[in-house]
């Protein structure tokens, strides 16, 4: 007999409780599957033994009553999942049984577990994923896993009284709560720069309203991309310097030679802690456009920056038109901008999973109403989809169990194609994601919820099978590069 089962029987026998009137819950369920060690024995009792629930309460927060030093009777512990205590005695689908002892199914315990936070939660989630979900003969049923809590109706007055009771029970919680709120308030305004800035974020920050303000960077990029051999861009560079700095033709030519030397020097001797570009408090470039162009061409992920109080000069496309630059050259340069925005992760990438594949046009329309769509990859099939999905989430800090949960849902669908829409969000309104301390756009969060809500009106697809959108420039760049590596974008932009 399983030693955990034997221990449970010994405790119940000592209390003269019938095995059929009990369902085991809590950490003892994990101990039964040889994951961790339970400090006590948590049980749910049937209505036949409710007298045990009239004894002294030791833990108001969890509504748990200790009936001896080991055994605790819990009440309404699964209400957050919409499951009442009596259902565990009426519905055999919610429990497993071993030698007359019934346990809450691990999938249901897991649903409650993932809604918690802290080290203990993380330990058990990781252990269960590794030992029980991935490497066990236990027939894990993802349909029993609920990844979101049910809304529990409680009046504001009752909630206030409940919280006040907890404070009197443990006054230190009041202090901890105040400290947490202060820390959260301090973190509300995300810091977009810290000696280095993500290249995609830098590019996105150069927009002033709807206008990209630094076409001069792109001109320099095109020149060095040609290895300083394209006559059109050589002449355009000199014309730019003449108009910007009121230089003579000879002085403009000398500036060109200085640029060549800078490029070669950076290639030969550059260190990341040297020669930061300068940006102001609005994250607009004030000095270092030559270096910025080189970083973009060389594939730098992060660029060194320094904050100054200078104003940014204005070199939008209109400045070049006003100064009589070749229109075709400007169109080519604008194409380059769109290419860089996508490649560097400045555009947000929305992957439409199989559950949303029938609503591609609807989703595209919803995005287009608010943002400019730059690229659409329609209905492509993915070889080794499981590996692809795992690769997509590598920069997302998504726990393994959530990936397995999503795969289980997606692999049940008939559609086998996915799509991607890449779109530009100006002024993304960043906040910090608390669990990862990474940037996430409030505008994109709202858009994602709006799309899911619209699709769900006409579809029975689970919410996790509809779409995924990168949170920030790093994730968007990774999504694009993953699509490229799997051959899902035929021609790189």
The helicity comes to 40-55%
What's the overall average pLDDT, rounded?
87
What class would the helix/strand composition place it in? alpha+beta
> How many helix segments?
19
Bulk shape = elongated
Report the span from N to C terminus: 63 Å
Task: Profile the largest sheet.
Answer: 7 strands, mixed
Which runs of at least 5 residues are low in confidence (pLDDT < 50)? 53-62
Number of domains: 4
Radius of gyration: 30 Å
State which percent range the strand residues make up: 15-25%
**What is the strand arrangement across the widest sheet?**
3-4-5-2-1-7-6
Give the strand tally.
19
In short:
By secondary structure, the chain is an alpha+beta fold. It has 19 helices and 19 strands. The chain has a seven-stranded mixed sheet with strand order 3-4-5-2-1-7-6.
How would you characterize the overall build of this protein?
With 493 residues, the protein is of the alpha+beta class. The chain folds into 4 domains: 3-113, no CATH class; 156-186; 196-341, no CATH class; 347-485, Alpha-Beta Plaits (2-Layer Sandwich), CATH 3.30.70.141. Helix content is 45%, strand content 16%. The protein has 19 helices and 19 strands. The protein has helices at 3-14, 27-32, 87-90, 106-113, 119-134, 156-169, 172-186, 199-205, 215-225, 231-245, 249-269, 289-298, 317-322, 327-343, 360-368, 385-392, 400-410, 442-458, 473-485, and strands at 22-25, 41-45, 57-59, 64-66, 71-74, 95-98, 101-104, 196-198, 207-208, 211-212, 277-279, 285-287, 302-307, 348-352, 372-381, 417-424, 430-433, 438-441, 467-469. The strands form 5 sheets. The chain has a 7-stranded mixed β-sheet with strand order 3-4-5-2-1-7-6. Strands 8-13-11-12 form a 4-stranded mixed β-sheet. The radius of gyration is 30 Å and the shape is elongated. The termini are far apart.
């Amino acid at each position: 007999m399983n030693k955990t089962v034997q221990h449970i029987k010994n405790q119940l026998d000592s209390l003269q409780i019938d095995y059929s009137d009990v369902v085991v819950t809590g950490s003892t369920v994990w101990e039964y599957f040889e994951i961790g060690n339970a400090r006590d024995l948590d049980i749910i009792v049937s209505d036949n033994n409710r007298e045990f629930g009239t004894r002294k309460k030791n833990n108001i927060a969890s509504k748990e009553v200790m009936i001896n030093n080991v055994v605790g009777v819990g009440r309404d512990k699964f209400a957050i999942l919409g499951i009442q205590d009596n259902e565990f005695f009426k519905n055999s689908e919610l429990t497993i049984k071993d030698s007359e002892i019934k346990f809450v199914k691990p999938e249901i315990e897991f649903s409650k577990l993932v809604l918690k936070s802290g080290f203990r939660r993380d330990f058990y989630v990781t252990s269960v994923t590794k030992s029980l979900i991935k490497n066990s003969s236990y027939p894990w049923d993802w349909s029993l896993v609920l990844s979101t809590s049910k809304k529990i109706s409680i009046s504001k007055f009752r909630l206030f009284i409940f919280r006040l009771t907890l404070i009197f029970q443990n006054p230190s919680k009041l202090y901890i709560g105040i400290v947490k709120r202060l820390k959260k308030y301090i973190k509300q305004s995300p810091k977009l720069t810290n000696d280095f800035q993500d290249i995609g974020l830098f590019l996105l920050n150069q927009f002033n309203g709807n206008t990209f303000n630094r076409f001069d960077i792109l001109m320099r990029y095109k020149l060095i991309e040609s290895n300083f051999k394209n006559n059109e861009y050589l002449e355009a560079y000199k014309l730019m310097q003449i108009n910007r700095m009121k230089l003579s033709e000879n002085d403009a030519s000398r500036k060109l030679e200085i640029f060549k030397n800078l490029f070669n020097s950076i290639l030969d001797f550059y260190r990341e802690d040297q020669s930061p570009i300068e940006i102001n408090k609005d994250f607009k470039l004030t000095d270092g456009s030559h270096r910025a162009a080189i970083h973009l061409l060389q594939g730098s992920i992060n660029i060194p920056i320094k904050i100054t109080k200078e104003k940014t000069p204005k070199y939008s496309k209109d400045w070049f038109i006003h100064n009589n630059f070749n229109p075709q050259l400007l169109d080519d340069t604008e194409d380059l901008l769109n290419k860089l925005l996508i490649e560097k992760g400045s555009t947000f990438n929305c992957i439409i999973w199989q559950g949303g594949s029938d609503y591609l046009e609807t989703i595209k329309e919803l995005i287009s109403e608010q943002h400019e769509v730059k690229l659409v990859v329609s209905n492509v099939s993915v070889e080794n989809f499981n590996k692809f999905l795992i690769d997509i989430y590598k920069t997302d800090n998504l726990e393994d169990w959530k990936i397995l949960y999503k795969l289980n849902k997606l692999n049940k669908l008939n559609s086998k194609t996915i799509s991607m829409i890449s779109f530009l969000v100006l002024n993304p309104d960043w906040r910090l994601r608390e669990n990862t301390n990474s940037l996430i756009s409030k505008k994109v969060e709202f858009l994602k919820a709006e799309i899911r809500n619209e699709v769900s009106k006409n579809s029975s697809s689970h919410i996790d099978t509809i779409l995924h959108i990168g949170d920030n420039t790093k994730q968007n760049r990774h999504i694009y590069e993953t699509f490229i590596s799997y051959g899902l974008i035929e021609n790189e932009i």
